[in-house]
TrEMBL record, chain A:
It comes from Salipiger mucosus DSM 16094. Keywords: Lipoprotein, Signal. PROSITE patterns: PROKAR_LIPOPROTEIN (PS51257). This is Lipoprotein VacJ. Belongs to the MlaA family. Pfam families: MlaA. GO terms for cellular component: membrane. It comes from the Bacteria. InterPro entries: MlaA (IPR007428).
UniProtKB/TrEMBL annotation, chain B:
It holds the Pfam family MlaC. It comes from the Bacteria. This is ABC-type transport system. Residues 1-31 form the signal peptide. The lineage of its organism: Bacteria, Pseudomonadati, Pseudomonadota, Alphaproteobacteria, Rhodobacterales. It comes from Salipiger mucosus DSM 16094.
Length: 257, 201
């Protein structure tokens, strides 16, 4: 790893990150009063629905992909999953440091060290059994911690549901992965390969649930949007049932039901 | 025991008509304690685990899940919430038909989800009181997976669970969105939507 090689991506990454942050976050819209019923703010709904129709067409040939991924033996699938997780840990640690979450960052550093060594270069998840479970983070979460608003909902081509903030985060993460930056060129592509394979395999695994939503719902766009937003907010700790989303068990007239 | 005592259906089952139910209403409602709420979810989770471990066919499991929903969930509340404002224009017969179709739909849909937990186990954590409900947190352990959260909300008055969060995804909101979409597809025709619902999930 020469100095010159290190310099080049750093400059590129700074420019890319700064550009993405500026363009993306400047555009993070916040809903006005009454514009986000049920916590859904989606001013670009017609455009998003067109992207959704496109994504749905892409997913159709994959329908029943659960069977395809089922052909891959369980231990192999698990190995790829563990490897992808280990490779993403440095980025998670970097983000947790930026978030000021030192405890989680150091637990994940330890997790990385344990799995990269005892776990045979990340093939086995030894750390989970030692009380260091999976704990992921991304730059979208960092932006949330820094106080940036979620922005409007958006559905991205191929990638799927997102928010403006999450999309900016994904873009920055793309250029700032410490593992990819540290590795020379051919190895960097193996990392990408592992991550893409893992995505494909987990799509197979959750394929049935995704199929249920995409083909089983009367309005798969609205279902996916609601499920994504609730799950993302839950992961970021933004929303628990106790707060503004509390549903009163006595507030509804159930007479006749 | 709790549910037989407090539920509307329990009272009706004891032979009290609507008039008698009105007489019963002014009696102060007996609130459920945190321990009772936790015990309810404990029993529900034990039953769900037993079904997951039974190795039955999908249809057999779905029938079992329907019984579990009927025993532990506040189904009238779930149905009324899911139908939302459209419930106001429903006739009593439509409300009954919707409740029945909805119970079947939800058993099929969530039965299939829980069926993916085969080989796994659900554990009840603690509970906390939130306004007039108890939030009972559970953790689902699946082989080779990071554990994840399922949270039940138990009504203080009803003593049954009336909402369920899986990894933050709220069943009531999700189903109200879905029922709304099904109604839209039928241009607001309740009977047509109910007929669709009997086949959905």
């Amino acid at each position: 790893m020469t100095i010159a090689r290190r310099e080049y991506p750093t400059r590129r990454l700074t420019a890319a990150a700064a550009g993405a942050l500026f363009l993306g976050l400047a555009a993070c819209a916040t809903p006005g009063p009454g514009e986000a019923p049920d916590g859904v703010y989606d001013p670009q709904e017609p455009a998003n629905r067109r992207v959704h129709a496109f994504n749905k067409r892409l997913a159709e040939p994959l329908s029943g992909a659960g069977a395809g991924a089922g052909a891959v033996p369980g231990p192999v699938r698990q190995g790829v999953d563990n490897l992808a997780d280990t490779l993403s840990l440095p980025q998670t640690v970097a983000n947790q440091l930026l978030q000021g979450r030192l405890g989680r960052a150091s637990r994940n550093s330890l997790r990385f060290t344990v799995n990269a060594t005892l776990g045979l270069a990340g093939l086995f998840d030894v750390a989970s059994g030692m009380g260091l479970p999976e704990d992921e983070s991304d730059f979208g979460e960092t932006l949330h911690v820094w106080g940036f608003p979620e922005g409007a909902y958006m559905e991205l081509p191929v990638i799927g549901p997102s928010t403006e903030r999450h999309a900016v985060g994904r873009f920055v993460d793309l250029f700032t992965d410490p593992v990819s930056l540290a590795l020379p060129r051919p190895d960097r592509y193996y990392v990408t390969g592992v991550k893409v394979t893992d995505k494909a395999l987990s799509l197979g695994k959750y394929g049935d649930s995704i199929d249920d939503v995409l083909s089983g719902s009367a309005d798969s766009y609205a279902q996916l949007r609601l499920i994504y937003l609730q799950n993302r907010r839950f992961e970021l700790g933004e929303d628990s049932g106790a707060d503004e989303s509390y549903i009163d068990p006595e507030a509804i007239d159930t007479e006749g039901f | 025991m709790v549910r037989q005592f407090y539920s509307r259906r329990g009272l009706l089952g004891m032979g009290l008509g609507a008039g008698a139910a009105a007489l019963v209403a002014p009696v102060p409602a007996l609130a459920v304690s945190a321990a009772q709420a936790e015990a309810l979810i404990d029993r529900a989770v034990r039953d769900i685990n037993a079904v997951i471990a039974s190795g039955k066919s999908e249809s057999g499991m779905i029938a079992d899940f329907r019984r579990i929903f009927e025993a532990y969930a506040d189904l009238p509340y779930l149905a009324a919430y899911a139908l939302g404002v459209d419930g106001r224009r429903a006739s009593p017969a439509q409300k009954r038909a919707f409740s029945d179709a909805f119970a079947g739909y939800i058993s099929r849909k969530y039965g299939k989800r829980f069926r993916q937990f085969i080989g796994g186990n659900i554990e009840v954590g603690g509970s906390r009181k939130v306004k007039n409900a108890y939030e009972v947190s559970c953790t689902v352990y699946l082989r080779g997976e990071a554990p994840f959260d399922v949270t039940f909300f138990v009504g203080e008055k009803s003593g049954r669970f009336y909402n369920l969060y899986i990894e933050g995804v709220n069943m009531l909101l999700t189903e109200r969105t879905e029922i709304g979409a099904m109604l839209d597809r039928r241009r607001g025709d309740l009977d047509a939507m109910i007929a669709d619902l009997r086949k959905a999930g």
